[in-house]
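During the reporting period the student researcher (J.K.) took over the structure-prediction task from the postdoctoral fellow and processed the backlog of single-chain submissions. One of the processed entries is reproduced below for the supervisory committee.
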Amino acid sequence: MTQRAALGMLATATLALSVGIATPAAASTADDADQAFDAFVDAFWDPAKNYFFTNSDHVINPAHAFGPEEGLYTDFWWEAQLWETVMDAYQRTGDAEQRQMIDDVYDGFVAYHPDFENNFNDDIGWWAQGAIRAYALTKDCRYLERSKQLFEGIWAEWDSTYGGGIWWRKDPRDQKNVATNGPASITATRLYQATGDDAYLDKAEQLFDWVDTHLQVDGHVFDHLEGPGDGTLVKWDFTYNFGNYIGAATALYEATEDAAYLDKAIAAADWATTYLTNGGTFIDEGINDGAGFKTVLVRHLTYLATVHDQPQYLPLLQANVTQAWDHRRPGDDLVGWNWSAPTADGRLQSLTAAAAVSALQVVPFDGHSGSQPGTGIYDAENAVTTALGAESSSEGFLGRGYLAGWNSDGQAVTFSVNTAAAGAHELRLRYAAAAGDATRRILVNGAEVGSNHRFPGTGLWSTWAETDLDNVDLLAGHNTIRVEYAAGSGSSQFLNLDRLLVSRQLEAEAGVRSGVDVESNPNGHTGDGYLAGWNGDGQGVDLGVAVEKAGRYDVTLRYAAGAGDASRHVAVNGTEVVADQAFPGTPSWDAWQAVTVPAVPLASGANTISVVLDEAEGSRNWLNLDHVTLRYVHDAPTDSASREPVSFPVGTCDEAADGATAPPGKAVLSSDNGWDTGLHDGSYTVAMNLWWGSNAGTYRLYENGELLVERTLTPSSPNPQQVSEAISGRANGEYVYTAELVNSQGTTPTAPLTVTVRDARPGVPVLSSDNNDGDGDYTLTANLWWGTNATSYRFLEGSTVITEGALTDATPSAQTARHSVTGAVPGAHVYRVEFTNAAGATSSAPITVTVAPEQGAS
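J.K. obtained the following C-alpha cells:
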C-alpha cells in the first residue's frame, strides 16, 4: 500500500460537493445487491485478462497507476480487496458464476504476479487473508497452501523492535501498523482453525496482543509506531484499522472461547460507530486507498453483529447501505467515496466503487425504500474542510476533536446533510470563541442564509456554547451546509467549531390548538410566536409532521415555565409516549429551555404529535411552548437471522482432500504449429496430455520461464487429462514451453517443448497492373496467393502512400487488394504494396507502370 502517508490527517482534504444531482429511489433488498454487483462487474471487470481495471473509464491515470499494464489494472492490495468483494457476493448468493469468478480473479492475478513478490507486508497479508477465506468458501486446497505460504513470508518480518510486531514493509523497515498485524492475526487464527496446528494460534495471539498493547486504548485503535527507541505512536483514525482489530478479536474469540476477545471487539465497534460517522454515515476518507477503508470495517462489524449476537450495530449498518445506494449514479449504478452525497459524473476508481457493493452483499437487508435520513449529528472534524485543520487539545469537545486555526479568508467546512423530509429545520452550531465575538458566512445548498452570523465570545477555548439558525428550509434528501470565513461578508476573529446539529423544526403556533392562545412578545421566541395561557385540563396542541422513513426520532420541545415546574401528556398518533413529561421551571418567561423525549417511534408518512394538559395523568402548571424539533436516531434493531461462523472443510489438504494418492503422472506437451495451416506462424495451440495416472488439480503453463496461465482441473484419476491453450500474436523466434501438474501429493513437471515461429509476418504479395494500353487509367492489384495473412495493406508510389485499408485474416487463404488509378500523368510510375499484421510488414517487389504521352502532344 503506497499512499497511507497521504491519508494521515484527522480531517480529509477538500472535495467538490454537488447539489441537485438526480438520485434513484433506494431500497436495501436482495435485488439491489444483485444490481450493484452486476454494475460493478460491468464497469471494471476484464474477462480477457481476468483482472479488474483501476478506473471506470479504463484509462490509465498517472495519479494512481501502480498495477499491471502501467496501471491500467488495479494494484496488488486493491485486487485483493476486490477479490473479497467477489467472495462477499458468492457467500450471499452461492451463484455458480460468482464461484467461478473467485478462481478467475486469483488466476488473473497470478498471471501477473506469479511469485507474489511485494515490498509491502500488508499487501501480501491481504492476499493471505483472502486466500484462507477462499479456501473456506471453495474447499480448493491451493488457496490453503497459498495462505500458508504467504503468511510464513510475512511472519518472517516479525522482530522485537517496539516489543514485537511485523514491519509494514521490508525496506525500509520504518513502521509497524494495524494494517499489517491485524489481518495477519486473522489469517493465523483461520489457519489454525483450518489445520489444527497450534503454532498458528500462538502466532495469532502474539500478533493481536501486540496491536492491543501498543496501538489501542479503550477501543480507540490507532495506526502505527515509527521512529527510534520505543517508537512514536501515530494516532491516525482510519476505519479499516477498527475493522481489522474487530476482525482479529472476533476470530480469536471463536478459536479460544475467551470472552475477553469479544469484549475488545465490542469496545472497538462502539468507538468506531460513535466517532467515525457523520449523520450516522461512515466518514468520507477520500479517494485512492482511503476509499476502500470502510469496506473492511463494514465487513467485520457485520460479522460481529450477525454471528456473535450484537444486533445494536445493525440499524447503523443498514442505514449506511441505504444511504450509499441512495447516492448511486443513475447512469451506471456506481457509488462514490462519500456515501453521504450523490456520486458525481466522471471517473471512479474500482476500490471506491467496490465499498458500497461489498456493503450491500454482507449487511442484512431491511427492505427500506426511499430516502435515508441522517441522525442530525455532524462532527465538524468529520466533515469536508477547506484549508482547515483539526485539534483535540481544548477540553469539552464532543467528538474526536474540533476545527481550529480558523481566521483566514476562504477557510471553510462543508457538511453533507440528509433529511427525512423537506421543510424548516433548526441548525445548531456548537463552538468556542475565546478571542471574542466571531462571525461567519453560512450557506445552504449554495444559497446564503447568514451573511455574517454571530458567534458570541466564550471567554475560554474550553468553554463551549451553541448558536442557532431557525426555520432554515432544507430539501428532502441531500443538502450541503457550508460555514466559511468570508472577508467580503465581514467574517472576523478566530473560531473553533465542534459540531452541527440539524433537526426538523415545527413551530408550536402553527399546530392545531385546543384552548391555547398564541402570543408574540419579543422575548427570544422563534417563528411568529409561541403558545401561552395554557393551564386548563384538556388544553393542548396537535403538531402534524410527515417523515420519509419510519423509525425512532428524538423529539425536543423548547419552552418557558416561569411559574415553576410544569408537566404535560405527550402522545404520537394517539398512542401515549410519556404520561407526564416534566418541564423544569425556568427563571423567567423570557428564559427558554428544552427537554427531549428520546427515541419516539414515528410512522412513514403523516404523524401527529400531541402535547396536552391532562390532569388525570398529573399534568400541572402554566407552560409556554415555542417549537418542537425532531431528529432521526436510527431504527430499533430488527429481528435478523443469525449467521454461522467461518468453518472449514472436514479434514485437511494434507490428508488429500482431492483424493490423490500420488503426485500427478508425467504429461506431454505438444503443438500444432505448422500442422494447422502448414505455416509456422505466430498462432497455434499448445496442448497438455496426461494419458493415464494420478490426476492434477492445478495446471500451470510457462513460456520462456514466465507463467503464462494457471488452470484449475477436475481430477478423475486414473483417467486422461487434457488442456489446450490457444497462443496468438507471437513474432518470429523460438518459444520454450514447460508445464507443471499439481495435486495435494506433489508437483510433476513436463519436458520442455520448443516452438519455432518463422512465418509470423505476412507472405510476400505480388503486385501487377492492367495498364496494357498505356493510358493514365488503370488498376493495381496485389495478390497474396498463399501464406500468413495480413490485416492491413497500403499502396505506395515511390515513398508516398496513395491508399490504405483493412484486410480479413483467413490464413492461409489468398488475399487480394486493389487500387484504381485515374488521370496519371505521362511517364514512369513506380509502385509497391505493403501487407502488415501484428508481427510486422512485408513488401512486394516494385513494378513500373509507364503512361504514354497523348497523341499529338509535343
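The committee noted the following: Residues 26-362 form a domain with the Glycosyltransferase fold (CATH 1.50.10.20).
J.K. will present the remaining backlog at the next meeting.
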